[in-house]
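Pilot study result, target chain (559 residues):
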Amino acid sequence: MAQGTTVPKLNFEYWLDKAIEWGQATTLESQKDVCLHLCQLQEFLHQVYETLKHMDSIVAIQQFPLIGQLLGRLCWNPFVTGCEESQKTLMWCLCCLYSSEPQSPVELKANSWVRSLLCHLLSSSNWGSNEAETSTFISTLGYTSVDYYCHLVKNLVFSLVAELRGNQFNGLNIQGRVSASHVNAVSLFCYPLVTLPDLTPLLETLLLYHGGASKEILSSEFLEAVNEAFLKKKISLSESAVFSLWLRHLPSLEKATLHLLDQLVSIQLKTLEEVACVIKDSLLPQAASHPAICRIVNEIFKNALLETDGAPEVMTIIQVFTQLFLQALQNENRQHKFPLKAYFPYHHQPLVTALLRRPVELPSTHWSQHLKHISDMLKALVEDKNISSLTDLFEIWFLVARFGEWLDIAAEQLLKAAVEPDALLWLLAFYYCPQNETQQRTQTMVEAQAVYSHLMMLFSCTDLSVKELEAAVPSITDTEQCCNQHLITHLLTNFLLFSSGGHMIAQEFIYHIYETTDTSKEVCSLLIRTAYRINHNGGESQMIVKLLNEILQKLTLKV
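Predicted structure:
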């Protein structure tokens, strides 16, 4: 056929005859003929793609019954696929023939056929088997086989990214609306290849793509594979791509949150700096700047607390997460995207606002007043007759518990500052004993007041023995009063750290608590939190810092 012959549009019969004639271009004559017709073939394939991308795959096959034979033969012709443009367009056409929701054996078989051809086109090992046939073409381009296929993949990725972003590529107008089935097919095409570094731009473009469909258009297999690769640090994605992944695929967000909890609980981290580093690296606190993600993560944290019976290490993780979330939220709020109520829709907003106020934002001389304000609001809420169910009570408790830094400061202020103790003691009593159906919290409050009075009488003693302290707080070893025991442990630990006489017996007495009560994890968590706060906020003597480090080092060895 002469070079100038005009080829009718979408003339599948003509091009199928040519493909059969060429075979796999094993003769010099067939190779020359492919090269003579390559520009016309590329134009034809572009026209086919522009037609297919707006059609359902089944309709396309019914309307063009020869398309399968033609594409199959062209994919195995190295002088056709050796051209990057032809290779790229063949892949686009194949993706259009992939059925996102196969309903029949015919569609399943067609999907399998499309996958095998895509794998053939992308697999260098398959191409390697035909090296004798392709090496001549590749060498004329100035590439080695490895370099050539690397460039081919990069160009394919670039063209798909350009298509999804609605840009121009090589003069070809591909700005038209891309069908949901086509995008789904592209995501399935990426599914087995998500860990390839060259594919990352396409992964991010897909994750950020929103075509206006009423339901998710990316395949769940693709979303799960990307999330799994990200969690295992096999790929690196931008924050916006990760956030979009979790927003559009709830199972991935749930898995990421549980993965973070498992990671932190399974490895014994010695400092909150290490905990904070792992949490921040997960991108979950930053992602929680979106209210939908924030609420889902909170629900997972609630369930984790319930399933672990309020394990101190889990509570500490949640509290550190909350601090990092607040930092991210402050940065996000510069753009004023979401109101505060979007994050805490069912809570008393003045209480939320007070808890959100970080201690470093207030002078330390105002801490006691701020804590009294929190305690008064909380008490009014809890004693409101409308708060009747345990679920409502738990929601209020969880809100307060997330902001554990204020609770730790309340325990310190009771011993270090001139305060009216009842409001701060009630705040701690509520945290350690939120239910009061049988007067548990009331009894906890009475016993805590008694212990607090004894501790304050001993606070100025410079010469204090372990026996004297044990006599003042005998209930510390009463394991039947669990809530009372945890609260008294909290007060007592702070007394040992911040009183003059407590320093001398701190290590001995804390080891005694650690070994004779069931509050060992509570003590460790409290000491770690105190060390973290002092290191970040300062204001304490080096003696306390040194004492904390020594105790924590020995307790870690005991664990």
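One observation from the pilot: The chain is about 70% helix and 0% strand. A full batch analysis is planned for the follow-on phase.
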